[in-house]
Backbone:
């Protein structure tokens, strides 16, 4: 399993547009085959940093997922929405694997 972390630099005056974008991906991404962990908008601290996180089996599955997402009507609409509204100033994507598994149970009762 690999996890894709997308770091967005967004226009802070267009946060509501980013949140709409995130909700749209909340529908399209799972439908197209990835396990969406979530999209995260600024809350405290930076007003320009946001994230999207999802997991997928491997890079071959990612390529098939991307093709389904590109053909998905909501996916197409959401991409066009982002291009038109220009609330995303920069987007960086990295793929990571979980290195800390298996996780142990925490101590209890102290």
Residues:
């Amino acid at each position: 399993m690999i996890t894709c972390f997308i770091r967005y630099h967004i226009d802070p005056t267009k946060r509501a547009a980013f949140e709409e974008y995130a909700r749209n991906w909340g529908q399209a991404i799972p439908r197209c085959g990835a396990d969406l962990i979530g999209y995260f908008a600024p809350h405290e601290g930076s007003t320009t940093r946001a994230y999207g996180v999802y997991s997928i089996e491997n890079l071959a599955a990612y390529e098939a997922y991307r093709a389904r997402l590109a053909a998905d009507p909501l996916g197409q609409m959401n991409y066009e929405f982002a291009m038109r509204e220009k609330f995303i100033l920069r987007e960086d994507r990295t793929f990571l694997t979980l290195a800390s598994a298996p996780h142990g149970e925490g101590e209890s009762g102290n």
Notes: The beta strands are 2-10, 35-40, 49-56, 88-96. DSSP finds three helices and four strands in the chain. The longest helix spans residues 15-32.
